[in-house]
């Protein structure tokens, strides 16, 4: 049975901001170096110590846990970035970490998990997805850190919204790469309090876009999921316990092609000297393909953990 999740209380996001001091960095907000019909700003979460916003959620959830809860270590289910966040924090706390990954997880992210001291267990995608639904993996002990539908994780993500509101209070639209919805809902929970007129739009790639069709149908839908180089966003459906929250907090969706996603990765590298992974560039692809967005527009560059071989292909104009 799906749990009932509510918007994250503003006080919980403020508490997360305090907990994360010394763990996550306050990332810069910079202009995208292109001519466009509206201001486009980049929130550079690729500059976190692990190269992804996931450090915020993992750091807050683990800092809030008691020593007893952490006594047997921690584990998570992640394609890579949350895994790095949990492994990074586990190493700092001196507790063991296990990561269950889907069998298509990219090599760069697996190498980073191992470098941070995490143990990796590969499973088929369907098994991995069921862990996200069940909040549990049989046979593993320790504290489970859910990568998406954990209020403490979303509160950590919400600190991004606080920083945006502080630096760009007139923001009109925030474009957020959409995977499970924890990033979008965390940011929206913060901005509903600080900048209530702002629009929060989830960004998906065409090969894995359940949000757009679910919002159109006013109910969660299951779609055909095709893995791609955009491995940090998209899935076959929206998690049941996340749908009511997503439906309440996310104002709409933008779907971009693999071509546009790759073009955005290349543009970020050549114009702003920013390395973004496929998911991290979805927001930029969406901003550049929609001239009707209310500005100023903030694009969440959610991560920069891309395999070097894929990046080379993209810089050469190809799609990995």
Describe, in short, the structure shown.
With 320 residues, the chain is of the alpha/beta class.
Give short descriptive properties of this protein.
single chain, 320 residues, alpha/beta, Rossmann fold, 2 domains, six-stranded mixed beta sheet, four-stranded parallel beta sheet, 13 helices, 10 strands, 15% strand
Structure write-up:
By secondary structure, the protein is α/β, with parallel strands linked by helices. The protein has 2 domains: 10-52 and 151-315, Rossmann fold (3-Layer(aba) Sandwich); 55-144, Rossmann fold (3-Layer(aba) Sandwich). The protein has helices at 10-19, 54-64, 67-70, 81-93, 107-115, 125-134, 151-167, 182-194, 210-217, 243-249, 258-271, 278-288, 308-315, and strands spanning 29-31, 40-44, 74-77, 97-102, 119-123, 143-144, 173-177, 199-205, 252-256, 297-301. Strands 1-2-10-7-8-9 form a 6-stranded mixed sheet, sandwiched between helices. The mean pLDDT is 94.
Q: What's the topology here?
A:
Layout: H1 10-19, E1 29-31, E2 40-44, H2 54-64, H3 67-70, E3 74-77, H4 81-93, E4 97-102, H5 107-115, E5 119-123, H6 125-134, E6 143-144, H7 151-167, E7 173-177, H8 182-194, E8 199-205, H9 210-217, H10 243-249, E9 252-256, H11 258-271, H12 278-288, E10 297-301, H13 308-315
Parallel strand pairs: 2-10, 3-4, 3-6, 4-5, 7-8, 7-10, 8-9
Antiparallel strand pairs: 1-2
């Amino acid at each position: 049975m799906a749990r009932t999740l509510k918007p994250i209380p503003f006080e919980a996001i403020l508490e997360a901001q305090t907990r994360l001091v010394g763990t996550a960095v306050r990332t810069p907000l910079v202009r995208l170096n292109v001519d466009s019909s509206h201001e486009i700003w980049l929130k550079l979460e690729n500059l976190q110590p692990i190269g992804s916003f996931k450090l915020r959620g993992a750091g807050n959830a683990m800092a809030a846990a008691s020593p007893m809860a952490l006594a047997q270590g921690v584990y998570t289910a992640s394609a890579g970035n949350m895994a790095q966040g949990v492994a990074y924090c586990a190493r700092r706390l001196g507790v063991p970490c296990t990561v269950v990954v889907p069998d298509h997880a990219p090599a760069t992210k697996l190498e980073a998990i191992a470098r941070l001291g995490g143990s990796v267990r590969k499973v088929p995608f369907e098994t991995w997805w069921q862990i996200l639904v069940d909040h549990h993996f049989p046979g593993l002990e320790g504290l489970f850190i859910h990568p998406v539908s954990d209020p403490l994780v979303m509160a950590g993500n919400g600190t991004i919204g606080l920083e945006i509101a502080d630096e760009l209070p007139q923001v009109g639209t925030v474009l957020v790469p959409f995977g499970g919805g924890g990033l979008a809902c965390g940011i929206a929970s913060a901005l509903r309090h600080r900048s209530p007129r702002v629009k929060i739009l989830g960004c998906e790639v065409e090969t894995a876009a359940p949000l757009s069709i679910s919002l159109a149908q006013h109910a969660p839908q299951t779609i055909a999921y095709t893995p791609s180089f955009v491995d940090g966003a998209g899935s076959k459906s929206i998690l049941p316990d996340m749908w009511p929250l997503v439906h309440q907090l996310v104002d709409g969706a933008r779907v971009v092609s693999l071509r546009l996603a790759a073009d955005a990765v290349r543009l970020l590298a050549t114009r702003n000297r920013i390395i973004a992974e496929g998911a991290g560039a979805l927001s930029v692809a969406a901003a550049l393909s929609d001239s009707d967005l209310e500005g100023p527009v903030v694009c969440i560059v959610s991560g920069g953990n891309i395999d070097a071989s894929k990046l080379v292909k993209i810089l050469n104009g190809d799609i990995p």
